[in-house]
């Protein structure tokens, strides 16, 4: 197959063209045109992915659980998955804390720019602080309460309730394992058919992925620039060192931690792994949403990496809801950066608090764009840093959100590959070879 017909290259071309067109539109003052005539195609692409996310998780997870046919096996895979997710999140936060303490990006922001940023994003800060206050007032076991829905249909009506959908699917799958096989068979066959339908729909949606990515990138650039390209450069000049610290941490975790785990626990060729997950990474970058990317993530795991359907249908939906390595790393860097900028020192105890709080917060962070900002407010206040400090980073948050979502999705695929390999359910595809003439 020619390189230009491969999906990940088409998405990459769409991404680059969207970036260039967004810069041109910002320079020429075309943001209104982009908002009205270009951005809707990106919204349609994201909506299509969100449309099939709930039925995909529900059907694939029920089929995956029932295919295990053994509750002990399910508990083993579940325990292994959650343990690796929590461990990689802790490593990601540690990397972020080391980098921000070594580079000290908060000491490079000029006082006048700090004042301008706080004034420009004052309204956004108040809105995020209100959401954080609602989250903070919940009891210590509210996370468990939130997992169990009171209504199946209300849980399935909102993609933010994906953890509840996962619970419903697991609950139903376990129930099907416990009832007589002749009673369970038609129900399993129904969800198997739904799963096959959704997978086919994913393939159809991905045909317009290059167009959707183009529109999303163009809209992102013009939204940040607001018809003033100079504003982008000013933001990058003021917050470039901070952004560099976040991106450096994400790169180290994505290209260091994950490959090391793959080599030690799965023995998967890194070239095969990263070329196989490229479409999911590019969609994650453009949508900034692990949840919206989930259909593509599952397709890459099964078709490109050879992860079995029963493993991918369990590990990946769970990862999209509780595994937020990139978000946790970013929160650690952002919290210390804000403290440095405001002239507040954070001792070892405070940074250990950040580590623990960020691990717990990453489990409850919704798989939607910028949800990590709300949890960051809670982390800041846990170590005595004013939550109003998030105004310092909101200007570049959208760009960094795109980057950290790539790490989140890469982590999900890494863990799925490791679990499949350790369970003997990984069948790597045979590399294409050129026929001799």
TrEMBL record:
Its main location: membrane. The keyword Cell inner membrane does not apply. Keywords: Cell membrane, Glycoprotein, Membrane, Symport, Transmembrane, Transmembrane helix, Transport. GO terms for molecular function: symporter activity. The chain crosses the membrane at residues 37-62, 82-103, 162-181, 193-218, 238-261, 314-339, 346-367, 373-394. GO terms for biological process: dicarboxylic acid transport; L-alpha-amino acid transmembrane transport. GO terms for cellular component: plasma membrane. It is a multi-pass membrane protein. PANTHER family: AMINO ACID TRANSPORTER, SODIUM/DICARBOXYLATE SYMPORTER-RELATED. This is Sodium:dicarboxylate symporter. It comes from Rhodothermus marinus (strain ATCC 43812 / DSM 4252 / R-10) (Rhodothermus obamensis).
């Amino acid at each position: 197959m020619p390189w230009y017909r491969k999906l990940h290259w088409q998405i990459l071309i769409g991404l680059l063209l969207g970036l260039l067109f967004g810069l041109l539109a910002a320079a020429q003052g075309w943001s209104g045109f982009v908002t009205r005539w270009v951005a809707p195609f990106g919204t349609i692409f994201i909506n299509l992915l969100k449309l099939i996310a709930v039925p995909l998780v529900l059907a694939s997870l029920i089929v995956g659980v029932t295919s295990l046919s053994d509750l002990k096996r399910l508990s083993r895979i579940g325990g292994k998955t959650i343990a690796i997710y929590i461990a990689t999140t802790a490593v990601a936060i540690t990397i972020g804390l080391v980098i921000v303490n070594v580079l000290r990006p908060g000491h490079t922001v000029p006082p006048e720019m700090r004042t301008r940023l706080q004034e420009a994003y004052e309204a956004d800060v108040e809105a995020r602080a209100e959401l954080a206050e609602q989250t903070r007032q919940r009891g210590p076991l509210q996370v468990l309460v939130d997992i169990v829905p009171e209504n199946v249909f209300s849980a399935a009506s909102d993609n933010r309730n994906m953890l509840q959908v996962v619970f419903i699917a697991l609950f139903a799958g376990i129930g099907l394992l416990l009832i007589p096989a002749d009673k369970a068979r038609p129900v399993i066959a129904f969800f198997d058919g739904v799963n096959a339908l959704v997978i086919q729909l994913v393939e159809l949606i991905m045909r317009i992925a290059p167009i959707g990515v183009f529109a999303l990138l163009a809209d992102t650039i013009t939204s940040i620039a607001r018809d003033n390209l100079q504003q982008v450069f000013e933001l990058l000049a003021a917050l470039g060192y901070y952004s560099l610290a976040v991106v450096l941490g994400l790169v180290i975790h994505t290209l260091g931690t994950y490959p090391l785990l793959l080599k030690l626990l799965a023995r998967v060729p890194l070239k095969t792994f990263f070329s196989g997950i490229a479409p999911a990474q590019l969609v994650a970058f453009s949508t900034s949403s692990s949840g919206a990317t989930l259909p593509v993530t599952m397709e890459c795991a099964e078709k490109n990496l050879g992860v079995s359907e029963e493993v991918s249908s369990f590990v990946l939906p769970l990862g999209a809801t509780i595994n937020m390595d990139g978000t946790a790393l970013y929160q650690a860097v952002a919290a210390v950066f804000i403290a440095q900028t405001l002239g507040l020192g954070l001792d070892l105890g405070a940074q250990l608090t950040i580590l623990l709080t960020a691990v717990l917060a990453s489990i409850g962070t919704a798989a939607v764009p910028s949800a990590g900002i709300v949890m960051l407010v809670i982390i800041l206040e846990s170590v005595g840093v004013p939550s109003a400090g998030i105004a310092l980073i909101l200007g570049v948050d959208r760009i960094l959100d795109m980057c950290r979502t790539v790490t989140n999705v890469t982590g999900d695929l890494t863990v799925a590959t490791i679990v499949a390999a350790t369970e003997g359910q990984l069948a790597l595809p045979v590399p294409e070879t050129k026929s001799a003439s």
